[in-house]
Amino acid sequence: MARNVNFDLNYPLMEAGLESPVDEEGVHDSFNQLIAEQSQNGGISDAYELQQLQRELDEGRDDVAYLSSPGHEYRGRIKGRQDVEWDEDERQTDPLIAERWSSATLRILSSMPSRTIGRSRGAIISQYYNRTMQLRRRRQSRPSIKDFSRSARPSIRGYGIEADEADGEGTEVSKRERLVNNLQNLSVTDRVRMLRAMPLSVAEKSELRRLALQKEKQTLSGSKLPCCSRLKYYIIIAVRQSWYSWLSFLSSLQLWQVPLKRVSGRFGTGVLSYFIFLKTLLYFNLFLFLVTGAFLVLPQAVHPPVLPAGRRPFSGLELLTGAGYFSDTVMYYGYYSNDTLNKSCKDDGAVQNDPVSNSTGHDCVSKSLSYKMSLAYFFTIGMAFFFTCIILVYSMSKSFGRSFRIDKSHSILAMKAFCSWDFKVIKKTSVKLMSENICTQLKELLAEVNHKRVKNTVGQKLWRLMVHGLAWAICLASTAACATGIYFFSDHMHQNLQQSSRSVNQNPLLNEASLLALPVLVSLINLLLPGLFNLAAWMEDYESPSVRTYVAISRNLLLKVSVLGVLCYHWLGRVASDPSSIGLTCWESFVGQELYRFLLMDFIFTLLDTLFGEFLWGLFSEKVLRRRRKPAFDIARNVLELIYGQTLAWLGVLFTPLLPAVQILKLLLLFYIKMSSVMMNCQAPRKPYRVSQMTTVFITLLCFPSFLGASVCVTYTMWSIKPSASCGPFRGLKTMFEAGKQWVQEMEKHDPKLSVVARAHSYLVEHPLFLFVGAGIFLLVIYFHSQVVDGQRKIISLLQEQIENEGEDKKFLITKLQSIHEQKRTPARRLTSQDSAC
Prior knowledge:
Blueprint: H1 12-15, H2 24-40, H3 44-59, H4 70-79, H5 88-93, H6 103-110, H7 121-137, H8 165-185, H9 188-197, H10 202-222, H11 227-252, H12 257-267, H13 269-302, H14 318-321, E1 340-342, E2 345-347, E3 350-352, E4 356-357, H15 362-365, E5 370-372, H16 373-403, H17 409-419, H18 428-449, H19 458-502, H20 508-514, H21 517-540, H22 545-575, H23 587-623, H24 635-652, H25 659-681, H26 694-720, H27 738-750, H28 755-766, H29 769-837
Helix pairs in contact: 2-3, 7-8, 8-10, 12-13, 12-18, 13-16, 13-24, 13-25, 13-26, 16-26, 16-29, 17-18, 19-21, 19-22, 21-22, 21-23, 22-24, 22-26, 23-24, 23-25, 24-26, 27-28
């Protein structure tokens, strides 16, 4: 049965890619190359025969049936019948196929690139038979074209290849057998790639694969292998199976793989991005903990300093305040000494263990392995921040490339619908998780495809602009008020510390408990103010859920940055500038204790929010208010809480080397608590939406406001603020940077050839220009990478638009050509009717 050709771009066959085969140009190029080679080798008759067949096909195609499937239409032409059956739906929807094409139109259509090869199964098998032959010729010499039967030669256009109806079926069977033989001789990778590229149905591809495997097994079973070859074959199979089992075991060791799939299936990519970001922060803190633990905590714990008498016992309040018993441990800066730790000292065969040595005896020092704590502290903190910066920049650049997709939602939807299922999954739980995940992703893609922008009038635009301005004014005013309140309250707490340091009768436990007032106030503001931001967003009534999420993130970010700015001024501007006024002998340990308290209070208030804001509110709305819907997960607030806590950890690693360990424990507990709360107390958003760029936004916020601000504060502390004179590894120095300067000077004294190192240290470390240049280079790399990705997106969007325009041009030209032909054919019909009347 012949069918006419549809040129509508929205026709489903066009979208499925059935109108033109894959890599047709490669087929024609290889065919022309084959003709040229055979012409040079003396095969002029065969090349002439193929070229003559090309001319005949170009000249003699004025019939409608030539546009149909070549094998079927030729057999139908031999039988002498044309069965043209039209579908009424196609007749109504597509005006281009409303009637039969003329011969002039058919000539134009047959010369189009998409019509140069037929779509019959015989032509496809012949085409891919030649491709498999090309793959085989890479390993062996190319045979002559005379060795091929005519049916096995490459089809020029796929029309008229079979000689008659009786030979058509046998030729197709022979082609299939040759194709199976070639597939059998190919490697597994080439065979899979060739089967994927064939424009056949899945059933036919499976049949070809089954025949190739069956023939390969018959060949292996029929051949008598020697004992050594058979043993080698079994060893290779065993090694391959063990390797695949090992890869499967490694993939199963991924952290939180199953819970993340469960969250993605039920709540979508928005909630999933929060837990992925939490996992990323866990890795960052694990890196910091390993670095500080290996180079700072472990050496000092092995060689502990001499502690002062009168150490306070453990009372339990230290778990909340971080002070008291914990003040004289490796947790804080003040515990670390400025001594040189020596492993051993050998003198005249005797071994003398001297863990801590301040002597400068050259005979002993030259034979011992020394470890200077001030240098270790300085370079460990500096290199930890440097490598963290590199990892952040790399992660952000990779995330830019992954998130800014250049594919349209229609193409992603098609790939997700037809190519997303993993057939290796056999467990019922895994199948259920995968089906839920695909279903949620399809909902998000469909919501993005069906999203329509509402065109508002001028009055409506003005009204929305006024509402947005009012909401932003409320949010900015409340943020400024909270930052001002924290500033004055911290000043009040500082004055109280000054008064308590002058008083004679003071209760240490009461003083430690009073230090929790400022962290409690800040955590309470961070808990309550995002509710006001959500109320303002409800008043604005955003149409897009993703836009609402990004606006909430920006408002919460302003709050966190303002709060952290006031706190950094309080610690570095008030406490560090005059520590003796509040009775501190080691202000670095006090700042570390403050950061510990803030981190702990943030975790406690997060738990309270999870309990009262999600669990109890869900029960109240379900039991009392009789609402079926549960509260949605607030992505913006929870993500900014993670960034706030990570900023505190980065700020405190200089004063509390074990603070990353506290942050790791906090993140682990927070993951399981939030995961349970989301699965029990929350539900998916009403409007599904895809957030492909949200992870990139999170990494960017973590890099620039968070890490950059923490780096600036730590660098300022090490560069400009004078360390405590009675504690820490930098006691007796004007700044922490002088530790590196003294080390370079000592190296220059011992070996004058190292003066280049001293000059390099003075220019690269002591001057701030190098840090600004390095930061500028990192920013330029990120900027250029984002611009390249944006340029690629624009180019591909222009190419897609050009393809659509070319399709419209083809439809227009075909319609015009048909109309002109109808105008020419109408007078001829009139003359014929007049002659018949006469």
